Amino acid sequence: MVLAFTGIGCGPCLAAVPVLESLPDRFAPGDCEVVSIECWGHRAHSLRVYAERNGITHPFLMGTEDVVNDYLGGRRGVPVFFVLDGQRVVRHVFMGFDPEEGGESIYSAVRDVLAGS
Q: In a 3-state reduction of DSSP, which class is residue 39?
């Protein structure tokens, strides 16, 4: 699973959307799930509009203050990507997104987790 902490209005977060959307297709069905959590306190309606406008089909959730504090230590710098194994243990963390790299590091991390390394 890839858990992506994002923010509406964040350029790097928007640049990562195509990578997040393509990840499940790069693996066998059911091997890679993607869930995004918006961390900047936007309302549910704004999330729906943003998801529709930007072709987000994976779950896109509204994070609470507690979620942001628990997972990001209260920092608002996004995007942050957590790659979890089958038991939902965090195996890799990526802070930021480089469009030139195109998400290959996230893809490689998911591949490694699925291979058991």
A: coil
Please say whether the structural domain 11-115 has been given the CATH code 3.10.20.340. Answer: no
Residue 82 — φ and ψ, nearest 5°? -110, 130
Distance CA 28, CA 94 (A): 23
> In angstroms, rounded to a whole number, what is the distance separating the alpha carbons of residues 60 and 14?
13
pTM over cut 0.90: yes
Tell me if 15 sits within 8 A of 97, measured CB to CB: yes
What mean pLDDT comes out for the span 68-89? 89
Distance CA 84, CA 81 (A): 10
Domain residue spans of the chain? 11-115
Instruction: Specify whether the CB–CB gap between 2 and 85 falls below 8 A.
Output: no
CA distance 36 to 56: 9
For residue 38, give the DSSP letter.
Answer: E
pLDDT tens readout for residues 36-56? 999 987 888 999 999 999 999
For residue 28, report the phi and psi dihedrals to the nearest 5 degrees.
-60, 150
